[in-house]
């Protein structure tokens, strides 16, 4: 067995080698860019800059869904980044696991809060 642990000879141990995470970061970034552009266009073409005008935009179901999907993309984007930071810089497994769990709990709570804000009566 060759001594190099790269390419087709690498030892697969369950670690993240990067492509899936790289792709997830790019896809979630594209979703956030698309949302920003839609919001910018809505702002530029709007004639009503009052609370009622913005509330009318956010009252539409498609915009609520697009906003929520964008929040989910943001939270997943943040998860990939934070998980990589914890894996790179926190060496004790117990501390790293505690930080990863705390991050997941925080992001899930943020997603719940975003849903509550968007769909509360």
TrEMBL record:
Q: What is the recorded membrane topology of this protein?
A: Multi-pass membrane protein
For this UniProt record, give its keywords in alphabetical order, as a comma-separated list.
Answer: Cell inner membrane, Cell membrane, Electron transport, Heme, Iron, Membrane, Metal-binding, Transmembrane, Transmembrane helix, Transport, Tricarboxylic acid cycle
GO molecular-function terms, A-Z: electron transfer activity; heme binding; metal ion binding
Kindly tell me the pathway this chain contributes to: Carbohydrate metabolism; tricarboxylic acid cycle
Which cofactors?
heme
Task: State if Cell inner membrane is listed as a keyword.
Answer: yes
Look up the domain of life of the source: Bacteria
One Gene Ontology cellular component term attached to this UniProt record is:
plasma membrane
The function of this protein is: Membrane-anchoring subunit of succinate dehydrogenase (SDH).
Name assigned to this protein: Succinate dehydrogenase hydrophobic membrane anchor subunit
- Species this chain originates from: Herminiimonas fonticola
């Amino acid at each position: 067995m060759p001594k190099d642990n790269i390419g087709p000879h690498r030892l697969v141990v369950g670690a993240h080698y990067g492509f899936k995470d790289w792709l997830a970061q790019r896809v979630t970034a594209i979703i956030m860019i698309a949302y920003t552009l839609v919001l910018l266009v809505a702002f530029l073409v709007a004639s009503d800059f009052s609370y009622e005008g913005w509330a009318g935009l956010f009252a539409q179901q498609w915009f609520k869904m697009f906003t929520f999907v964008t929040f989910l993309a943001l939270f997943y984007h943040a998860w990939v980044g934070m998980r990589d930071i914890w894996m790179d810089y926190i060496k004790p497994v117990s501390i790293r696991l505690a930080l990863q769990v705390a991050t997941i709990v925080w992001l899930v709570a943020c997603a719940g809060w975003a849903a509550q804000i968007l769909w509360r009566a």
